[in-house]
Amino acid sequence: MKRADHRGIGMTSMRTRERLVSRLADEGIKNQTVLEAIRNTPRHIFVDEALASRAYEDTALPIGHSQTISQPYIVARMTEALLGTDDNNLPKKILEVGTGSGYQAAILARLVEQVYTTERIRALVLQARNRFYDLGLHNIKHQHSDGSWGWPEHAPYDGILVTASPKEIPQALMDQLKMGGRLVIPVGDRDEQQLLLVTRTAGGVEEKILDRVRFVSLQAGKL
Ligand code: SAH
């Protein structure tokens, strides 16, 4: 057996990615640019080498520090909701809270002009930064911070995507959203949350429930 086979390169081939993309389409992801971004982003780079052979399964995987890289279906669903359906009014500037592995930020970076992403665990920030660099994704700015407070210096954002779950929507995030901007966020208890699409309107906010999900909790402070 060649060394490449040992390292599971076969499992990370284009064909394996293609199978994931058609599965996501079967599950209801319609936005072709989102599917294209998933097709072109090597998810195996975002997990430990020991898990690389499972990177194109539609499942969440551990990334250390008791955190996980989200399931591809959920990444696709959140990204699709954030982009919206109006091609003439696509978001340009996005804030992500919860960089984790960096995978979701990498997907966003292929679809919008500028991505800002925050993460409270320093070790994950450093790892994600190297991955962005290796993939040549120069339109992602990252910060080691508690993202419950958003990233006010670059506000307002066209869209905010939160990949860890608070019990309630942090007011700071609403405040940093442009008028007409969209916030995609899992809200609820530790064991079960609703994935919400919140749109900031002149009259206040509009809320739509997208899915039932289970994310790690949004936690205060930095590590
Ligand atoms: N988007 C990530 C998913 C990571 S899991 C990916 O594509 O891999 C959620 C992440 O949110 C974890 O890394 C966790 O450390 C981080 N997190 C939790 N609370 C946070 C907070 N208040 N501010 C910033 N990041 C936070």
Task: Put the structure in a nutshell.
With about 220 residues, this protein is of the alpha/beta class. It has a domain at about 60-215: Rossmann fold.
Order of helices and strands: HHHEEHEHEHEEHEEE
How many strands, what sense, and barrel or not for the largest sheet?
7 strands, mixed
Discrete helix count: 7
CATH architecture of the domain at 61-213: 3-Layer(aba) Sandwich
Describe the structure.
With 223 residues, the protein is α/β, with parallel strands linked by helices. It has a domain at 61-213: 3-Layer(aba) Sandwich (Rossmann fold). The chain is built from 7 helices and 9 strands, in the order αααββαβαβαββαβββ. The protein has helices at residues 3-6, 14-26, 32-40, 72-83, 103-109, 122-134, 171-175; strands at 61-64, 67-69, 93-97, 114-119, 140-144, 157-162, 177-188, 193-201, 204-213. The strands form 2 sheets. It has a 7-stranded mixed beta sheet with strand order 5-4-3-6-7-8-9. It has a two-stranded antiparallel sheet with strand order 1-2. A hairpin with a 2-residue loop joins strand 1 and strand 2 (67-69). Helix 2 runs antiparallel to helix 3 (32-40). The longest helix is centred in the N-terminal third of the chain and has 13 residues, at 14-26. It starts with a helix and ends in a 10-residue tail after the last strand. The structure holds S-adenosyl-L-homocysteine. S-adenosyl-L-homocysteine binds next to strand 2, helix 5 and strand 4.
